Amino acid sequence: MKLSGFLTCFICVLLLSCNSSLSINEEEMDVIDSPIVTTNPNIILIIADDVSKDAMPNYTEGSVKANMPNLQALMSSGITFDNAWAYSVCSPTRASIITGKYGFKNGVVQVNDQMPTSQTSLQKYISDNTNDGYASAIFGKWHLTNDINDALTMGVDHFAGIKSGGVQDYYDWELITNGTTTNSTEYITTKLTNDAISWVDAQTKPFFLWMAYTAPHTPFHLAPTNLHSQGNLATDATTIDGNPLPYYISALEALDTEMGRLLNSLPTEVRANTIIIFIGDNGTPNRVAQSPFTRQTVKGSLNQGGINVPMVVSGIGVNRMGVRETALINSTDLYSTIGNIVGISATEIHNSKSFYSLLTDANATKREYVYSEKQDAYTIRNATYKYIKHDDGTEELYNLSSDAYENSNLIGTTLSAEATANKAALIAEANSIRN
């Protein structure tokens, strides 16, 4: 990559732009903030599909862990977040990241909801506020609209992947590249990585790479043996169906191997100027759920196993290394946080509150509440209590400090004064968010 000449010019443009004044109606989707001078770091956002904490290293949930040395290296050199909340299924999480809005505000609350193209994507937000200073690409899963060209319409420079929720066969699938469809028989995790490496290598300015792997989403399968440590497992459907966990783990380990190859492909000076964000999009599929989660409290549910996802941040600008962070984080928060990373000054926009300062300061201001929802319920929590309200009127209340995995619903019991006060505060905040 040839960045040095461009960086000099780009910094000059940024310095000049700081003297200009832009006025945009706050009701419009496309909000522009005054950029600030930065070192123009590259951003790689890696989204794993259907991953909760139970199969992940460095989290206490689950007993069968994937061997993920590349992710563990990011954990050792960065921050592991314990309380990141997403949605219980994939499309709403991806929509929340790309718009910085909760699902009821961006139109995507459940799978197959269509995100309006009038929404200002994170990629366009970055472009508008950096004088088109960043190249952007999405590789892998889109699953936000039926027309894959919408990614390009909404400001993404390059798209290569799939438009739907998954593939029928990881070894035989349709690849869409900027609107053109071809058949690929290359293992999808490897192919996406190859294409991303080629794209990054061709860039001449800072880049924002959205790497949306389909792994380890179903179908359960055995990944190529050179990419995982699960061994030469049988590949007949009966064996896989009988115990899908090692196959799920093989796909997750393959993701880690290919993620490592992507990161290792970066020239030294580029890697040194890159921040990496890893996040799961929702809970584990119920057939491979591990204790303390159950089949009823993972993907598709508003329980912790469905929405409390792994998240790791490492790289340039992160000086808290090898630490755990308990701050409450919403998936929406990636919007303003990535905006701060590229030099946009706004720390709060739409439903996104930046956690950028947490990358360097453990005592930075933190969220008081996080929120998630699905088509028939919503949930909200603070540092201690979690409340769930279903459309049929039923309620759930948990003290997560003493009941981390929601075994004892306090509704229907005599609530303590503390529990009563927290329930009222959670409902009030939820009403404020939703109205």
From TrEMBL:
InterPro entries: Alkaline_phosphatase_core_sf, Sulfatase, Sulfatase_CS, Sulfatase_N. Residues 41-343 form the Sulfatase N-terminal domain. Keywords: Calcium, Hydrolase, Metal-binding, Signal. The lineage of its organism: Bacteria, Pseudomonadati, Bacteroidota, Flavobacteriia, Flavobacteriales. Pfam families: Sulfatase. It comes from Polaribacter aquimarinus. Gene3D superfamilies: 3.30.1120.10, Alkaline Phosphatase, subunit A. Belongs to the sulfatase family. GO terms for molecular function: arylsulfatase activity; metal ion binding. The keyword Metal-binding applies. The keyword Calcium applies. This is Sulfatase. Residues 1-22 form the signal peptide.
